Amino acid sequence: MRQTTDFLTPARLGRLDLPHHLVMAPLTRNRAEADGTPTDLMVTHYAQRATAGLIIGEASTPNAAGQTYPNITAMHTDRHMAGWRQVTEAVRARGGRMFLQLQHGGRVSHPATTGRTPVAPSPVPLPETIFTPRGHQPAVVPREMTQDDIRATVADFAAAARRAVEAGFEGVEVHSANGHLLHQFLAGNTNRRTDGYGGPAERRVRFTAEVTEAVADAIGADRVGVRISPGNTVNGIEEDDTDVLYPALTARLRDLGLAYLHLVHADPDTAVYRRIRADWPGVLIGNPVLPGLTTEAVTRAATDMLAAGADLVALGRPFLANPDLVTRLRLGAPLNPVRERYLMYTGGATGYTDYPALGGQPSSSSMVALDGPRVA
User: What secondary structure does DSSP assign to 139-205, as a single string?
Assistant: First the structure.
């Protein structure tokens, strides 16, 4: 990709021509039906934000065991696929493009939510409570995955990727970040295995690599991205070899011809960012840490991210609170603040589809019915 610091100029990602360099990051907001099917409310939410260069749809589980919290999306049944198809069609009708993030929670799950004991690389529980349909509950000890479990989960990711493409997504993002299952295999404190998936960094990256390879084989490598979060301690993750771990991972992935690598909380001043940028031959999406949700802060962060070698810039909260973010940044207009109270677990339109566009009203040209079941 041609290097530029002007994030509002056209860009290219694999087979896609993008109108600019700004990507809407995946934002799980717990607005799906209980079985993981997207709702009409979600159709509206994503269609409102179709001016993003690319939307990465929120984390969707490839199987029932992968569910993290109540009312998150999934992609392992025909009903899930039909629900997501209505989202992609609404976004495409407004000129947008979507990938779907595929995420397995691993130990970040609970029987009160799934009816199943969580699975993980090792029987190491989440060191905190987890939200369930009955409120916050103590975490349970996960079951260590067998070789058969690993093979089945890899196959589930590939099947979910095929469903995603059939549902109208341009591709998928494999989530190997933020303390979920693939990240649990990467981190030494959650992966205590002594087989071919544990021990040295070269073996701990194997599960992420095998999932990615299977997904690439299923839908084409140029439709596949991978998300990582080096050094991120969310969900009880501890990495004591980040500087070795991620070079080992990029070495496994670099020759697959993937669409992109997505780096969470990318900081150009760190050695790990510079090493990943030097090692990664393809498109790098940088998700910067924002000092504040203002036009000036977002503009500076996006400009600096591109100047540091990123090819695209992923933004989360700015797109959440501003359905017309691109227009606001182009005009230098003020941004809406995020209403923190309504981020997760609340459901409903408040703090989700009612953020005003410039002019004071929600972006409503694609509004649909907001409540009730849709998909048979």
Answer: --PPEEPPHHHHHHHHHHHHHHHHHHHHTT-SEEEEEE-TTSHHHHHHSTTT----STTSSSHHHHT
| Token pair belonging to 138 | 């103590």
Determine how β-strand 73-74 pairs with β-strand 260-266: unpaired
Distance CA 306, CA 318 (A): 17
Phi, psi of 66 (to 5 degrees): -80, -5
Give helix 147-166 / helix 78-93 axis angle, nearest 10°.
40
Bridge-based pairing of strands 119-120 and 98-102 is unpaired
Give whole-number Cα distances, 80 to 61, 93, 97, 160, 209, in Å. 10, 20, 19, 10, 26
Determine if the pTM surpasses 0.90.
yes
Structure-block tokens of residue 87 = 């989202």
Q: Residues 354-372: pLDDT tens digits?
A: 999 998 655 543 333 222 3
Rounded-to-5 percentages of helix, strand, coil across the chain: 35, 15, 45
pLDDT digits (tens, 9 = 90+) for 320-348: 999 999 999 999 999 999 988 777 667 88
Residue 166 φ then ψ, to 5°: -65, -30
In 96-111, which positions are buried (b, 16+ CB within 10 angstroms) versus exposed (e)?
bbbbbbbbbbbbbbbe
Give the pLDDT confidence score for residue 341 in this predicted structure. 78
Per-residue tokens: 29 = 């907001």
**What six digits make up the tokens of 144?**
């260590």
